[in-house]
């Protein structure tokens, strides 16, 4: 697969290691930065990563930061992206089975690199279940481009 990857400074070290891990598995990686530990603003790197998944340049995407929270928030504002914030193998497995997550967000300050590798591997290997979960995904996509509001 062609996989987009992006991080801020707080996710940079794991981004580099996950990039190597993906290449060893035979995947093509498109790196949207950042390229050092120097402090940056995560939306500037995460949004282009998510847009590459949304427009089909990449099949999947991985974003990283300190917690992964802000990165997931940014990615999920891009139409067509379903980014699961993953903190263990089970959350990654369910992100695929139930949510058909085409992106994951990982918090470098939240876990060991071994757990991060296991999350990535699980997310790559687990198929979407479909069925009732497909209906729910379609309900997510019923939101207007402006978002939802009570009328
Ligand atoms: O949700 C955002 C991410 O966790 C960021 O990586 C984090 O906020 C960066 O924090 P700092 O600027 O204190 O390194």
TrEMBL record:
Listed under GO biological process in this entry are: D-allose catabolic process; pentose-phosphate shunt, non-oxidative branch
**Which reaction is catalysed here?**
aldehydo-D-ribose 5-phosphate = D-ribulose 5-phosphate
Q: Which Gene3D superfamilies match?
A: Sugar-phosphate isomerase, RpiB/LacA/LacB
Instruction: Print the keywords alphabetically.
Output: Isomerase
> Pathway it belongs to?
Carbohydrate degradation; pentose phosphate pathway; D-ribose 5-phosphate from D-ribulose 5-phosphate (non-oxidative stage): step 1/1
Query: Which Pfam families does this chain map to?
Result: LacAB_rpiB
Q: Which InterPro entries match?
A: Rib-5-P_Isoase_Actino, RpiB, RpiB_LacA_LacB, RpiB_LacA_LacB_sf
Q: Which domain of life is it from?
A: Bacteria
- Write one Gene Ontology MF term: ribose-5-phosphate isomerase activity
Task: Give the EC number.
Answer: 5.3.1.6
Q: Which residues bind D-ribulose 5-phosphate?
A: 8-9, 66-70, 99, 109, 132, 136
TM ranges = none
Q: Which NCBIfam families match?
A: PRK05571.1 (NF004051), RPI_actino (TIGR02133), rpiB (TIGR01120), rpiB_lacA_lacB (TIGR00689)
What family is it from?
Belongs to the LacAB/RpiB family.
Q: How does it assemble?
A: Homodimer.
What is the name of this protein?
Ribose-5-phosphate isomerase B
